[in-house]
Amino acid sequence: MSQSKPSAPFDCEAALLACARGDRAALRQIYEHEASQLLGVAFRIVHRRDLADEVVQDAFLQIWQKAGTFDPQRGSARAWIFTIVRYRALNTLRKTSREIAVDQTMLSNEPDTATDLLERLSRMTDAEALQRCLEQLDTQKRASILLAYVNGYSHSQIATHLETPLGTVKAWIRRGLLALRECLP
């Protein structure tokens, strides 16, 4: 009966330094030893498997390209790799949580008046009471609320669309919603 030799512990630093010299097999070793844990780190940050997979893939590309910048005097190779994944995941999270940019042509294609927006709202079912209360609001509050809740615009997009300061738009929406709360049964 033969006993198998215990495998030597993985030397992440040596593999990373080999990557810096262009050794693809070393990158594969890092991937085989660390990918599952790196995927777990990415997933805990972005909360989506598809995004976590992208983060790890992007991180390994960066590891390959930047391995020469690793300095063992500043920390361990494993910490350096995990830091790359963490930063990639945080950047991905920031990108996916940003508002969708709306260009001016999209804004210009939207109805310009509150009356047009009210017509769209009136086509919605069970909107009669809401429409009646909205008609009681002044034009700016009504337009702001409709742009936010019917069109899905952010406060900053509404400010741009109405060419009004952001703080004013926020106040119109807040006051308009308070008035609607009073009006609706």
Quick synopsis:
The protein is 71% helix and 0% strand.
- Name the assembly state: single chain
Structural class estimated from helices and strands: mainly alpha
CATH homologous superfamily descriptor of the largest domain:
RNA polymerase sigma factor, region 2, helix turn helix motif
Radius of gyration: 27 Å
Order of helices and strands: HHHHHHHHHH
Strand content: under 5%
What is the count of structural domains? 2
Mean pLDDT: 80
The total of helices stands at 10
Biggest β-sheet strands, sense, barrel: none
Q: Could you walk me through the main structural features you see in this protein, from its secondary elements to its overall organization?
A:
The protein is an all-alpha fold and 185 residues long. The chain folds into 2 domains: 12-97, Orthogonal Bundle (Rna Polymerase Sigma Factor, Chain: A); 104-183, Winged helix-like DNA-binding domain superfamily/Winged helix DNA-binding domain (Arc Repressor Mutant, subunit A, Orthogonal Bundle). 71% of the residues lie in helices and 0% in strands. The chain contains 10 helices and no strands. The chain starts with 11 loop residues before the first helix and ends with a helix.
Question: What order do the helices and strands come in, and which of them pair?
Answer:
Elements: H1 12-20, H2 24-46, H3 49-66, H4 77-97, H5 104-109, H6 114-122, H7 128-136, H8 139-149, H9 155-162, H10 166-183
Helix pairs in contact: 1-2, 2-3, 2-4, 3-4, 6-8, 8-10, 9-10
